[in-house]
Amino acid sequence: MAKIFKDIGTTQKRVNPKHIANALGAEETGIRINTKQGPASLFSLRQFLIGRLKSTGGRPRIIGTRKVQSKISYFEEDLKKLTEIAEYYKKKDKINVTSSQIASALIHAELSKISESELHI
Question: What is the dihedral of CA 85, 87, 92, 96, to 10 degrees?
Fold first, then answer.
């Protein structure tokens, strides 16, 4: 049986992030990240795409999606952001993905958070 260790030491004082930035010579970029849409969201979306995109000779497709495309009307600003995200992955990670595939992955991620029991009235 494994031993269980319990930490009974005192909690360390928190370090101010500005002190760390100073010590590392970091510079202000002016970029503000919304915590709901920050790098962690882009990373988890990237992991989903890498795990599901499969090349079948043409453009890679997301495994598990229908072969027949559904048409979706996008808000203009959403389509712009989806296109920017697709370009981001193409340039940064060399992942050949379309804005529609990004939309599909995001819709899937959000819908998976809703349990079927919540839908029964």
Answer: 100
